[in-house]
Amino acid sequence: MTDTEEKGFTVKDRRFFQQSEEEKERLREESRQREEARATYEAEAAKPADAAKSQTGTPLPEINFASFIMSLGTSVFIHLGDAPHPETGKSDKDMSLAKQTIDLLGLLREKTRNNLTSEEENLFDNLLYDLRMRYVREVTKSGGA
Question: Do 23 and 12 touch, CB atoms closer than 8 A?
Answer without folding.
Answer: no
